[in-house]
Amino acid sequence: MIYLDYQATTPLAPEAREAMLSWLGGSDTTGFGNPHSAHRAGRMAAAAVEVAREQVAALLPPGGRVIFTSGATEALNLALFGINPRQVAVSAIEHAAVLDTVEALGVTTQVLPVDAEGLVSGATEIAPGTDLVAVMQVNNEIGTIQPIAAIAERAHAVGALVLCDAVQGAGKLSAPAGADLIAISAHKLHGPKGIGALWLRDGIDLRPIMHGGGQEGGLRSGTLSPALCAGFGAAASLCTNLSKSDGNHVKMLWEKAIASLPGWTLNGSAVERWHGNLNIRRDGLDVARLMSECRNLAISAGSACASGSGRPSHVLRAMGLSELQAKTSIRIGFGRYTKITEIEDACAEIRAAAAAQGE
């Protein structure tokens, strides 16, 4: 199988796996200690957690703290419920972890529209009285990079905080400038599943949404997994060192993929984007049939969270695409461990499958 679904999850880095092993120890080692215990085994585990926290923090702005969570969904819920806003503004193309949580809050909500390239419109005024603005750094479906610094300036001008879902950008791009809260996920940057983090700018108070032992500064009760933390930290450290070479690699793969798929239309900006995400459409395409025939490929028809729903992508619809156009789109995702021969073989298989539909 050729794996081209990096937006859904990324392969675990060997270095991250290695970092986790000693903290998965059995009864004959000290690597199973509870990091919240006061004895030596606990202190060793706690030290590993704090090393990982520093490694993750290196991906984020100075002047804040990292709160470990079970993933970005929990981080976003902690941010939204923890701030407890009365009025929010969200982009029309946010992930369901933001849109559904805002709906659950039941507060006044302004939806910020996007243009045909998937960029938040700079002409839209943020409503006075807004407490929180939520805009993602890189869209998970189309790869568009939002101008977070400019949006943050507009939000701060009306007294609002800025929450940024940086899941797809963390470890690849610089931290979103101007954000007050940032959510990230380990398994989107070659770390393990089951752990993420919320970065909280100094001076911002949250109310906890989980209660119990008061771990993570009282904001996220529950025993931390030193193994998951260590894997997250190792993956983050790799990104710190490899982000430039990773970026060059995916740009080369992107150019090869674009050249190998003539006749397809790009969804999203060709310039303001992460090049590891290629979302394209072809008029008249039966996506379900194509994906069935390309059974050797792991590609997507959209967000993994919405896979199988049968609904057209809310992201593509927000950009002005018709329901039919949205349903003729596929997403190809690649990254650090993707080989150029895999892109060549995958594109050949996609071309053949699409051509067969015209026969």
Task: Describe it.
This protein is α/β, with parallel strands linked by helices and 359 residues long. It has two domains: 2-8 and 243-356, Aspartate Aminotransferase, domain 1, CATH 3.90.1150; 14-238, 3-Layer(aba) Sandwich (Aspartate Aminotransferase, domain 2). The protein is 35% helix and 14% strand. The protein has ten helices and twelve strands. The strands form three sheets. The protein has a seven-stranded mixed β-sheet with strand order 2-8-7-6-5-3-4, with helices on both faces. It has a three-stranded antiparallel β-sheet with strand order 9-10-12, with helices on one face. A two-stranded parallel sheet has the order 1-11. It starts with a strand and ends with a helix. Mean pLDDT is 94; it is low at 303-307.
Condensed summary:
The chain has 359 residues and is of the alpha/beta class. The chain is built from ten helices and twelve strands.
Give the SSE order as H and E letters. EHHEHEHEEHEEEHEEHEHHEH
Mean pLDDT: 94
- Coarse shape: globular
CATH class of the largest domain, named Alpha Beta
Oligomer kind: single chain
The total count of helices amounts to 10
Summary tags:
359 residues; alpha/beta; Aspartate Aminotransferase, domain 1; 2 domains; seven-stranded mixed β-sheet; 10 helices
Question: What is the element layout, followed by pairings?
Answer:
Elements lengths: L1 E2 L10 H8 L18 H18 L6 E6 L2 H12 L3 E5 L4 H10 L2 E5 L19 E3 L13 H10 L3 E5 L15 E5 L10 E6 L24 H35 L4 E2 L10 E5 L5 H7 L3 E2 L15 H5 L4 H4 L2 E5 L6 H17 L3
Parallel strand pairs: 1-11, 3-4, 3-5, 5-6, 6-7
Antiparallel strand pairs: 2-8, 7-8, 9-10, 10-12
Helix pairs in contact: 1-6, 2-6, 3-4, 6-10
